[in-house]
Amino acid sequence: MSSDFTYAASGVDIDAGERAVTLMRAAVERTNRPEVVGGLGGFAGLFALDTAKYRAPLLASSTDGVGTKIALARQLDRHDTVGIDLVAMVVDDLVACGAEPLFLQDYVACGRVVPQRIAAIVTGIATGCQQAGAALVGGETAEHGDLMDADEYDLAATAVGVVEADAVLGPERVRAGDAVVAMASSGFHSNGYSLVRRVVDRAGLDLSATPAGLDRPLGDVLLEPTRIYARDCLALVEELGVETVHAYAHITGGGLAGNTVRVLPDGLAAELDRGSWALPAAVRLLEEHGVPRTESERAFNCGVGMVAAVAAEQADRAVALLTARGVPAWVAGTVTRAASAATPPEVTLHGDYR
């Protein structure tokens, strides 16, 4: 039989895949919750939902990826943080409706399975799951040697969470007079990287250098993993209740205004004060190299990764609770009444950044 007609010769190395599983096993097992049934290696992940714990549980699900931030990870040959980004993208969407993330499954497509690289990626996913309190119950690594370059890969994940039917957060709870509490981002998170990479390339910026205004190499800043807010947002609801915490908006593609408007009902608007926080130095750097402010505010989070609409009288308490948990937070604006109940929601940013 010709050695050309083997799976390995076609670009799929089963042995390498098995070595990758061995390397990642311990990290995955550290994410286990008591509800996980069985272990890594089955055909499906099993999770026992304790129905006695809930009155009227709703399951929530979210699917997302990391996007072109992966291109920077490949360029810098650092693959241990993009897994955290992957988890953040899905679990912080779940918590926006008040759901507790329960478990997650990942999908890694690559041109060639390099066990150490795959293990680094999945270890990052496991780290993110631990931060979110979610179990990593399984996943898939697919080797597509005839479709992707050897060092190329892409990531996706789906997470499932649960929320009581009478505790779902969203536009229906938001009221005129609510305070908009902002939570600081850790960087660009996982959005806007096609624009980031374009600026870096066109401006000839050195990823290993530390530009003026930054405190570390640009590559480190751009690969800073996404802050995971899930446990902090759940803790805030646990402490203050849904009568106080009305909605969360995860600030991803579309920016602060484009995502905050999604949790406002018709007839309401939000006014946010840029002067309540400082524009991150990395965003200013890109603006210095040609990115217009209007584009920054659409493509990047500009320093705010999550916002909460909370009853105004409890805003200071919400800020204090988040700050105590290590999440810098502040009141960034207010929810106001629009001209009529039929007016579509709108978010306005005014002033200038500190």
Would you give an account of this structure?
By secondary structure, the protein is an alpha+beta fold. The protein has two domains: 10-40 and 54-164, PurM-like, N-terminal domain (60s Ribosomal Protein L30, Chain: A), CATH 3.30.1330; 171-350, Phosphoribosyl-aminoimidazole Synthetase, Chain A, domain 2. It is built from eleven helices and twelve strands. It has helices spanning 14-29, 69-76, 82-94, 115-132, 193-203, 218-222, 230-240, 255-260, 281-288, 293-299, 315-324, and strands at residues 36-37, 46-47, 57-65, 100-110, 135-143, 153-164, 179-184, 245-250, 268-273, 304-310, 329-337, 346-350. The protein has a six-stranded mixed sheet with strand order 8-10-7-11-9-12. α1 packs parallel to α4 (115-132) and α3 (82-94) packs parallel to α4 (115-132). The radius of gyration is 22 Å and the shape is globular. The N and C termini lie far apart (70 Å). The model has no long low-confidence stretch (mean pLDDT 93).
Q: Main traits of this protein?
A:
24% strand, six-stranded mixed β-sheet, 60s Ribosomal Protein L30, Chain: A, four-stranded mixed β-sheet, single chain, 2 domains, Phosphoribosyl-aminoimidazole Synthetase, Chain A, domain 2, 11 helices, alpha+beta, 354 residues
